[in-house]
From TrEMBL:
Species this chain originates from: Neolewinella litorea
UniProt keyword annotation of Ubl conjugation present: no
The protein's name in its UniProt record: Sulfatase-modifying factor enzyme-like domain-containing protein
Keywords: Signal
Stored Pfam families: FGE-sulfatase
Transmembrane segments: none
UniProt entry tagged with the keyword Signal: yes
Residue ranges of domain Sulfatase-modifying factor enzyme-like in the record: 220-367
Signal peptide stretch: 1-19
Length: 495
């Protein structure tokens, strides 16, 4: 979500817009330093169901805050945030080393709705090419994230999932035990003892090579979007692009018809007018090509996650359970869900309390939602399971070890594959907040056009086996746009 303000000679008029669960309010400008051409931006940020815990999993959720501006009627650009000026008690604000944005989160342990008020960050408007006489519009955005701490973890689960990772043992050739990731050092892929290995269908990848030290392996800490990217978030991004870029970023650029989009709950279909809109803002966005997903991640200052980071985000540091899902056991609900509040902010699962407490909630082919006895062909809104019913557990929410939602089911997750040379060349650089005039990401060593990517976690049209954490059936499948594919961004931390 974001808040908008207009600066004439750097004076303020505030306008408000509301998004899903995270809210930025009371945006104002503070003191200006004419010599250094900096200005304080002041704001509040709040969201629901926040946490910080000092026992396992030793993590917290956060708001990823970044700022956009434009001069007059010009193009939108990314604002450089260089420092904090004032941080309220109980709040931590981490400005990233590249000045792209800030993470805002609790300073101490706690659970519940959170409001961080009176945060002040410093905008280096001079470095961004803004002068004191310019008419400037500024927008403050925030995305809910979850911190995945640094530490060792395991790949694979010795459960026979398709093409799952395992540790090679040439003396025990039938052994497929989990592979422990103990650092970000180079990792050899092959058939010698100690190598990372995988077997299965051709899309699992090429079984020779290395993951270099810069390929993000999940050992280093990182932030991950709490939810899959929503239609609202993509439309916000789309509406801030120039006309030439919008042609590239429109879903019809992939040859998809509006009628086909609506069949699968994607209501963003651009008719050439501005601003674009969607009637399903809280539903995750689908039908995006890899290039369109990467453009959004570049613009937000995030990056695509690797398939190794995907497994870490799901199971954390616990020893793998064969055939487990993101909620930590091998049991999944098979009862058809009934949707309530269709297309509203509170869309949820009406029969959530009827589901066994031991069965995890993840949307797949076998339990797709129903409305008036008709099958709903599409994903449920982001975070719907966590907000449904009266139980608040990992299985009922479908949450991962770290509290990240919908990593199993709903829409499949875009990942940078470890299975081919294009994916292995990825070095984990973050987006810089700017996309090309034609609407493309332009970050070094981000594979483009689907090669180097795959999907993990399964979708509403998948068999339940595809939702398992270790399943790599489509991990190196040359990712293409479709109704089952979604994405979320990550960012290495500290950075």
């Amino acid at each position: 979500m974001f808040r908008l303000l207009t600066l004439t000679l750097l004076a303020v008029t505030v306008h408000a817009l509301h998004a899903n669960n995270i809210d930025v309010a009371n945006v104002n400008l503070g003191d200006r330093d004419l010599n250094n051409q900096t200005r304080i931006i002041r704001f509040d940020v709040s969201w629901e169901n926040s946490w910080r815990v000092n026992s396992a999993p030793l993590n917290w959720d956060a708001g990823w805050v970044f700022v956009k501006y434009r001069i007059g009627n010009g193009s939108w650009h990314h604002a450089s945030l260089t420092d904090t000026v004032s941080v309220p008690s109980g709040t931590t604000v981490d400005i990233t080393s590249d000045n792209i944005g800030a993470f805002v989160y609790r300073s101490a342990a706690g659970v519940g709705d959170v409001l961080h008020t009176g945060i002040e960050v410093l905008w280096d408007y001079g470095a961004d090419g803004v002068t004191d006489g310019d008419l400037v519009i500024v927008e403050v955005y925030a995305i809910e994230m979850v911190y995945v701490p640094e530490g060792a973890y395991y790949l694979g689960a010795d459960g026979g999932d398709i093409a799952e990772f395992y540790r090679m043992d040439e003396w025990l050739p039938l052994s497929t035990g989990p592979y422990e990731v103990m650092s970000e050092n180079s990792m050899r892929i092959g058939t010698l003892t100690g190598d990372l290995n995988f077997v299965g269908a051709i899309p699992s990848g090429t079984l020779t090579g290395y993951l270099g030290p810069q390929y993000p392996k999940g050992h280093q800490g990182f932030y991950c979007m709490k939810y899959e990217a929503s239609q609202h978030q993509y439309v916000q991004f789309f509406n801030r692009q120039p006309a030439a870029a919008q042609v590239t970023l429109d879903l019809s650029a992939e040859g998809t018809l509006c009628a086909n989009l609506s069949l699968f709950r994607n209501a963003f279909c651009w008719d050439g007018s501005n601003p674009a809109a969607t009637s399903c803002p809280y539903v995750p966005v689908s039908f995006l090509s890899v290039d369109q997903m990467l453009a959004y991640l570049d613009w937000t200052g995030l990056r695509p996650m690797t398939e190794l980071e995907y497994e870490k985000a799901c199971r954390g540091t616990t020893y793998p359970i064969p055939r487990e899902y993101a909620w930590g056991n091998a049991s999944i609900n098979t009862t058809a869900y009934a949707v309530s509040g269709h297309n509203n902010p509170n869309e949820g699962v009406a029969n959530a309390d009827d589901i066994s407490e031991t069965e995890g909630n993840g949307l797949y082919m076998g339990n797709r939602l129903r409305i008036d006895l008709e099958i709903l062909n599409g994903p449920v809104r982001v975070g719907a399971f966590a907000a449904s019913g009266t139980r608040f557990s990992r299985t009922s929410s479908g949450g991962s070890y770290y509290g990240i939602l919908e990593l199993s089911g709903n829409l499949s997750e875009l990942v940078v594959t470890a299975g081919d040379a294009a994916g292995r060349s990825y070095t984990g650089l973050h987006g810089d907040g700017e996309v090309s005039p034609g609407g493309l990401a332009d970050i070094l060593n981000w594979p483009l056009s689907g090669v180097g990517y795959g999907s993990r976690g399964g979708s509403f049209l998948s068999a339940r086996s595809a939702l398992r954490v270790s399943s790599r059936e489509f991990a190196a499948a040359n990712f293409t746009a479709g109704e089952t594919h979604g994405f979320r961004g990550v960012r290495t931390y500290p950075n």
